[in-house]
Amino acid sequence: MDLDPVFLSRLQFAWVIGWHILLPAFTVGAAAFIAVLEGFNLATGRGVYLRVSMFWIKIFSIAFGMGVVTGVVMPFQLGTNWSRYSDATANVLSPLFAYEGLTAFFLEAAFLGVLLFGRQLVPRWAHFFAALMVSMGTLFSSFWILSANSWMQTPAGYEIIDGRFFPTDWFQVIFNPSFPSRLAHTVGAFFITTGFVVLGVGAYLLRRGNFAEEGRTMMSMTLWLLSVLVPLQIFLGDHHGLNTLQYQPAKLAAIESRWETGRSIPLTLFAIPDEKAERNDAAIEIPLLGSLILTHKADGEITGLKDFPADQRPPVAIPFFAFRIMVGCGMLMLGLVLFGGWLRWSRRLTTTPWFLLLCEFATPIGFVAVIAGWITTEVGRQPWTVYGLLRTSASVSPSLTGRDVAISLLSYMAVYLFMYPAGLLVVLRIVRAGPSSSTGTDAAIEAGRPQAPVLAGASASEGSAS
Amino acid sequence: MNPAVDLVPVWTLILGIAVVFYVLLDGFDLGVGILYGLAPSTAARNTIMNSIAPIWDGNETWLVLGGLGLLAAFPLAFAIIIPAVYFPILVMLLALVFRGVAFEFRFRDAQHKTFWDHAFNYGSGIATFAQGVVLGSFIQGFQVSGRVFAGTSFDFLTPFSVLTGVALLFGYALLGAGWLILKTEGPLQESARRQGGVCLIGVLAAIAVVSVWTPMMNPAVASRWFAFPNILFLAPVPIATVVSALITWRALHGRSEIVPFAGGVGLFVLSFSGIVVSLYPNIVPFHFTLRQAAASDRTQAFLLIGTLVLLPVILMYTSWSYWVFRGKVRRDIGYH
């Protein structure tokens, strides 16, 4: 078998970033949630906020630790597998990556230690401040990395000399055309992902009966947030779509599996794209709705894939289906949030067992949507690393053989397939133990050892706990 | 665009500082991980791990900054060196994954504590060895054609790079022993002193062999050190190394708690300056100089503005976080 280093390097990048993005998808929102809880506790002195916060700090620390180690992998990928991309784009993109490190990583790392281990060592306001800084760090990180990603999608503020990109206007580089809508849509997605995790865990705790107060707090707080964010996210997604139509028409055509250019096009709900024959099989379509949604005009024009040279088209089936999975998740989320709002209005939110069960099932829905959206936008960018300017095939490290990349890819697969289930099991164990670790299964797990003293000290100081 | 100030020396200095910071900071906590395997009991392992639990993440961040700093300031060097050390980097990253998650998993997944103990110990050791191999490959140089690495992904593996891999194991373990002498008491501190002594011997042997081998591999390095009058100006480097070694040795066998760590730091800084003397101004030995590999003026200037503001702030709050956890490891703080 002939191993292609370009294809395998793409697979490897997709693998390491796909797993990595699951962690910021949770920790960005979780850090903010923890900061809010710590702030509420500081302001009101109510113990429930502290107990909920300490519970989520435990889970956060696992996710954050895994996010760090899988994140350290990422910048090195640019060198090991994509050295020609690095050589070509470094003058423009490297300061964005470096600013991520300088503004975000150090901030998160320094204050995380205090957040996790310093509750007894620093004044309460300083501990809250640490939580706030960790949260800010996650947002700064999102800002820079999404700016860099957006520049690859919609490059701006550059000139090309001898096949390499050089900056001409930093403002245009950072705030490139797709950045604002991508940043809003992605950070929105991250908060929603965390929201559904907290909602699901809260529902689980309520359904199980113990920790009812904590479960109610989790459900109530996040359902308010989701009621705002889910509709907003759908609006932002639509806005982002208009941006893709304007700047990446081939990607949009692939997402819609639209072969012929036309006006007043239908909305394709489902189809099986046949890329060889350049047509769709088994298509289910709604007339006119396509143009209306994509262009906001009933007779809006969409350029079809056939109007792009074959070597400038992205794969069709993957963005087409991934996009539909993402939108489908969005609709499910909206339904759940609306139901939740209605139940809250009729004061049955936390006492309706089937709804609690539904929330539990929906716990991972944000992750599914994030991965699907990520696949849509990244596969849709192909066959370019810098859209329309630098081909993926011209970006890979020239020294690599297919065998080299096969070895590294298999290594990453083996390690991640071991590490992620291990991490998930540890998190599930924390969830099962519940917010107060002095009761439940935690005691059995940590038999013979005292409770984690950071938490013991804090729960002792809160008085009426459990 | 011609800025008034030449930024290449500025960025050389910043990157040099970042590399030294990384090597010292992650050096001692990887070193602690290496010595972890020698700890006699679960209680001792708890104390050792808790001595670095609040700070390891910040230390590892310097690795990211070093990599990204190289990409930003000298992108051509990044694009040639990193693919040339494809496998050592892979091994380092995967070892760091195991080692990094072990902090949390060891505490939360108590049934498999022994497994995570090994993950932490071997992860630290393997990551260190891989970094040493990268260093050795860097010193011995790469095959380059045009702007790309032209060798194979297995060129890194030579007796010299294996030697530097082993050397770094002793070096980081020496820093780790110094850290444990600072942060622990009683029998644990005593054993750290003994281990530090063994590591110091290993470090000195490695420094001696590398110092002889490097000029033998490359005449340019030999003439840099041994031609008159350079030999007069450069003689203080080996002399200071011998003096630092003697001071460290005496401190390891004496009472001082700070000098063994400081001595280890001194030896690292001297070794680093030895490498700088040998290779300067090359950043891809012996193909591209720092200036040839430098990013555009606009790139360097744009990043410099933020770096000059942010780096002092980073050092300030990082120092604060070290200060919060100052003194001997407290039994009641951290994982148990």
Commentary on this structure:
The complex is a heterodimer of chains A (466) and B (336). Chain A is mainly α. Helices cover 69% and strands 7% of the residues of chain A. Chain A has a domain at 13-170 and 407-466. In chain A, helix 3 (83-117) runs antiparallel to helix 4, helix 7 (212-247) packs antiparallel against helix 10 (317-345) and helix 10 runs antiparallel to helix 12 (365-379). Chain A starts with a helix and ends in a 5-residue tail after the last helix. Mean pLDDT of chain A is 88; it is low at 438-466. Helix content of chain B is 77%, strand content 3%. Chain B has 14 helices and four strands. In chain B, helix 3 crosses helix 4 (75-84) and helix 8 (186-217) crosses helix 9 (219-226). Chain B starts with 6 loop residues before the first helix and ends in a 12-residue tail after the last helix. The model of chain B has no long low-confidence stretch (mean pLDDT 89). At the A-B interface, helix 2, helix 3, helix 13 and helix 15 of A face helix 3, helix 4, helix 5, strand 2 and helix 14 of B.
What characteristics describe this protein?
heterodimer; A: 466 residues; mainly alpha; two-stranded antiparallel ribbon; two-stranded antiparallel sheet; 69% helix; globular; B: 336 residues; 14 helices; 77% helix; 3% strand
